[in-house]
Amino acid sequence: MTKNAVLALKNVSREYIQAGQKLTALQQVDFSIHPGEFIAIIGPSGSGKSTFLTIAGGLQNPSSGSVIIGGTDITKLSVKELSQVRLSEVGFILQASNLVPYLTVEKQLQLIDRVSRRKEDANAMADLFNVLSIEKLRKKYPTDLSGGERQRVAIAKVLYGTSSLILADEPTASLDTKKAFEVVELLAKETHERGKATIMVTHDERLLKYCDAVYEMQDGRLTRRKMS
Amino acid sequence: MFLAINEILKEKSRFVLITIVIVLVSYLVFFLTALAYGLATSYTQALDRWDASGIILAKNANDVIGRSLLFEDDYRDQSGDDRALLGVGAATIEIDGSEDVALFGIDQTSFLNPEVSSGRGFAVDSEVVVSDELKRIGVAEGDVISLQGADTTYTVVGFVEKATFQTAPVVYMTLPAWRVAASEVSGMTAMRDDTTVSAIVTRGDEQSVQTTDRTVWQSMRDFSFTLPGYQAQVLTFSLMISFLIGIAAFVLAIFIYILTLQKKNIFGVLKAEGVSTGYIGWSVMVQVLLLLFFGLAIGLALALLTGFFLAGKVPFAVNVSFFLGIIGLFVVCAILGGLASVRSVAKIDPVEAIG
Lengths: 228, 355
Hints:
The complex is a heterodimer of chains A (228) and B (355). The two termini of chain A are 22 Å apart. In chain A, the strands form 2 sheets. Chain A has a 6-stranded mixed sheet with strand order 6-7-8-3-9-10, sandwiched between helices. In chain A, strands 2-1-4-5 form a 4-stranded antiparallel sheet, covered by helices on one side. In chain A, helix 3 runs parallel beside helix 5, helix 4 packs antiparallel against helix 5 and helix 5 runs parallel beside helix 6 (177-194). Chain A is an alpha/beta fold and 228 residues long. Chain A has helices spanning 49-56, 79-89, 105-115, 122-131, 147-160, 177-194, and strands at residues 7-18, 21-33, 38-42, 64-69, 72-73, 90-93, 165-169, 197-201, 213-218, 221-224. Chain A has 6 helices and 10 strands. Chain B has 355 residues and is of the alpha+beta class. In chain B, helix 2 packs antiparallel against helix 6 (230-261) and helix 6 (230-261) runs parallel beside helix 9 (320-346).
């Protein structure tokens, strides 16, 4: 079912030529995710998880197949239009958090207003800071934050934007167990409450209990795991 | 704008250091340019104020004004407001200290008569008007000065700004007074002829100038370049200064380029998040222009301040068009450096930045 999907991949394949050899990173992947869904993708390294994420996020085009974000096939867009889609529709949360080193927590969020030419929403910001318990970090720089705090700020940044699709690449890789659980629990809760669609790539099986569905990636093939 | 300013605020000490580099480079360039220009003008300052087109010298003087002697027969046909008789000599004056000066004998009714900045013009043969550079060795209005090797004394009645010839301060006097002084100092008795002058300064174009078989006309520019040492000095300094300016501008461009290149990673992440290359490029340019504005402004202020405090001790002269040219070149080069780094920002593959 791909109707009303935030993101839908249809028959997507991706091949690379590396050192004269053809490598297949993704093989005929079909996938869709709807508002309010929190989905995990697991698999060994090199299985194609990262390629999946970069294609789903509009960072690169597949060799074949179509990628539909918010009803638009983004494989047909220009570089500039693609950038616009990423800005308004896709939020990234990366392993080493993607915060600008010289902006305070507060300004990380204000930057989104600046680049999307919209007005600052002080209420939404205050609400996010409160929900994610980072109120006291407002004036701090990323280097002054702990790993867990940084990921919470990254989540705040994504939720503050207009993105309907959140792509989290190993968001807990640099965190201890307790912090990792906190961050993922928070991400799942906000995804459900705000009707976002979140795809999390992870190694950590213990985090899967927060997810609505789990997919396994193996040699470029994506299969849904039966929930026990 | 937002990124540019916030980065400067966060990395204050780094940006202060970068600004200091730009300040020092521009200070050096501005100051040395003003010094070289000042030295060049001190050769010809007294000539530049004439607004003359050229000068007639005796043919046998081989372009050396100090050896040129013209008599009434040579300039009988040269009359009118566009012609002025000039006597030139060198002497040493003695007061508290001694100082080499250039003697200019002029007719007060001619266009060579300088405008005094203080005091009044000379009225009789025993009065002189002098360059205000002589204030430095203690010459004041009303002082009586004498020339080494001569008996006559003169009363200083006025001062003139920017009056140096071959770097020596000028002493202006009447033509008769000059004839006496020059002959006393040099022992050249031919000077006693009361029609003797060194040269005839002309205004108006070359066609209007008539010379005899004993005289030769040359433009003021050509004349300046035949002054002993002037050409060698001007050529040497203009080469040095233009190399300095060129290399400084190039270094600045590379400096700005590397500065931005360092931030490629964070720009890559921003691009992945959908921030447009235009937004990033603009913030790079704003930062470059801000740094440049403060760097050049402070560098210029320092150079002018140094010139102000060293006034009279070194020949420091500001040529506005040179300075504007330097500023323009620096701005253009820095923008080119910035654009080169914007181009590399445009080429960043967001996939690599994320992975």
